[in-house]
Amino acid sequence: MIDYNQQILTPYDIGNRRLRNRLAVAPMTRVSGTEAGLATAEIARYYERFAKGGFGLVITEGLYTDQKYAQGYPFQPGLSDVEQAKAWRRVTDLVRAHNGSVFAQLMHAGALNQGNRFETATAAPSAVRPKGTQMKFYYGEGQYPLPQAMSDEDIADAIAGFAQAAVLATHTAGFDGIEIHGANGYLLDQFLTDYTNQRDDRWGGNVQARIRLTLEVIKAVRAAVGTLAPVGVRISQSKVNDYEHKWAEGEAAAEVIFGSLKDAGVDFIHVTEFEAWKPAFIEGNASLVELARRYASQVAIIANGGLDVPHHAEQVLRDGADMIALGKAALANPDLPSRLATHTTLAEFDASILGPIANIKDSELALA
């Protein structure tokens, strides 16, 4: 039997980074940067409160990586130039001042573009319109635009953007680690997904070919930052525009994906599912966390998805997770680790925080 409070509050190492406990703040898009993509004083206070409240790791919202097709939302902060990187320095300094660690999540939106100040067109593996409609709480409206299929040059530019953003994150902004966003329907996940990737070149076809772009990004980022900082990747089946999606090849896909990520040398895999403790596929009882542990042994596993309930968190820890990442529970309780340590009741999440626009509210900063 796992004692959730006791295990989750113990220190843990990811790569060369020692974290004071196994609780992370999950990445959450908050569209609160400047129009030029700069992190603000408000953003710095927002992230500082999680470190002040005891979280061992804070993972930022997705930061766009280049000044071409990467940006997905208006007022999304970026890491695409030196000015943006310097703006993040106050965030990283404040988090470390409270004995926390902070990783930059690097993101390319691909076809899920609701506002890009650099390009009017959108780019994706294939010219396939994304499912669903744009998210209103991120300033979206109506259908997603039909993307253009990326050329080899576009793909090379995207890879280079991730690598350059990683250098800016570690050398200029002062981040402690890098999370590559390969989940939730954004560009790398679009290449991984069978129905959004209809290519017949080396970037499309079977699952081994479809995970290739993620592996090339990992390789480029690792070459750029060396051993200076841990490098990991976020992986999911579900998407912001398709919650019900499952990998077409089932567990065979999980074996290829997680095995390939392990072989690529990532320090951690961040597995996110809508309900992370449930079976990943109709056939079989294993959760995606359990499959990640099975096929990526020795790699740190972070689990995310509906884990604010202790017995759900205990289940994924039994399945092999090393850390738990919390989203809504962290928004409601920026001091959640401190509350767990003192057995203090947790506050309920107030959904109005994320509406009508999911930007940072004054009421949240008052919790700091």
UniProtKB/TrEMBL annotation:
InterPro entries reported for this sequence: Aldolase_TIM, OxRdtase_FMN_N, Oye-like
GO molecular function: FMN binding; oxidoreductase activity
Domain called NADH:flavin oxidoreductase/NADH oxidase N-terminal: residue spans: 8-344
Highest taxon listed in the record's lineage: Bacteria
Pfam families linked to this entry: Oxidored_FMN (PF00724)
Record-linked CDD domains: OYE_like_FMN_family
Protein's recorded name: NADH:flavin oxidoreductase
Lineage of the species this protein comes from: Bacteria, Pseudomonadati, Pseudomonadota, Gammaproteobacteria, Pseudomonadales
